[in-house]
Specification:
The protein is an alpha/beta fold. The protein has a single domain, classed as Rossmann fold (3-Layer(aba) Sandwich), CATH 3.40.50. The chain is built from 6 helices and 8 strands; from the N terminus they run E-H-E-E-E-H-E-H-E-H-E-H-H-E. Strands 3-4-2-1-5-6-7-8 form an 8-stranded mixed sheet, sandwiched between helices. Strand 1, helix 1 and strand 2 form a beta-alpha-beta unit. The longest helix has 29 residues. The protein is globular and about 45 Å long.
Length: about 230
């Protein structure tokens, strides 16, 4: 399969891109880091700021030219701010929404028409367990991820008859650079690893097209981390 992964420069996105290649897929990873551009074997990386629709459209055209029509898109790009609501500036709130929600929309719009024309495809939204519970100090992030889930749930029903599937993934705490160093140090021993999430999501992606994994919840054994 030809797979597009956003947020492929680090964390879950990077782990997913690498593991999907190992399983025999052709993968294009999008990352904001300019040095990420290049290719290694069947993994190609393209610099892209998903906050800009024109940048997304250019990157997707480049991906299609490189590997062919996109069969699967994985939305793994995301940012956050660990601040209480009143301490989160409007600018910070907007930046989180621009990346996590609008960026997901831009990339989906760029790949979906091709999936509909071919009558097959899979859209994977790496959301967060923050959608299903309450984390203080994460109002912007929670709002953005809840928005992606609502958007994807509506989209699933709109395109189900087109044979295009939509999957929402709800990971709990994963040890990635998104977490500040002091929290990774404090909770790292109980957090999940990006590679562990990637293995489970890869299994779900590789399922036959006549079935759909609509929701996937993956949590640390200890449950929620109270930061």
């Amino acid at each position: 399969m030809n797979i597009l992964v956003t947020g492929a420069g680090s964390g879950i996105g990077k782990a997913l891109a690498e593991k999907l290649v190992v399983r025999g897929n052709s993968v294009v990873g999008l990352s904001r880091r300019p040095q990420a551009q290049g290719s290694t074997g069947r993994l190609r990386t393209v610099a892209c700021d998903i906050r800009r629709e024109s940048d997304v459209n250019r990157a997707v055209r480049k991906a299609v030219a490189s590997v062919g029509p996109i069969d699967v898109v994985v939305h793994s790009a995301g940012i956050t701010v660990f601040k209480e609501f009143l301490r989160t500036s409007s600018r910070e709130f907007g930046q989180v929404l621009q990346t996590n929600l609008l960026g997901t929309m831009f990339v989906t719009k760029a790949v979906l028409p091709g999936m509909i024309r071919r009558g097959r495809g899979l859209i994977v939204n790496i959301a967060s367990y923050a959608v299903k519970t309450v984390y203080t100090g994460s109002s912007a992030y929670s709002a953005s991820k809840a928005g992606t889930v609502a958007m994807m749930n509506s989209l699933r029903e709109e395109i189900r008859h087109r044979q295009v599937r939509v999957m929402n993934v709800f990971p709990g705490a994963v040890r990635t650079p998104m977490w500040p160093p002091h929290l990774r140090k404090k909770y790292g021993s109980v957090m999940m690893e990006p590679e562990e999430i990637a293995d489970i999501v890869c299994d779900a992606i590789m399922q036959p097209p006549h079935l759909t994994v609509e929701e996937l919840v993956i949590r640390p054994l200890v449950g929620d981390l109270r930061v």
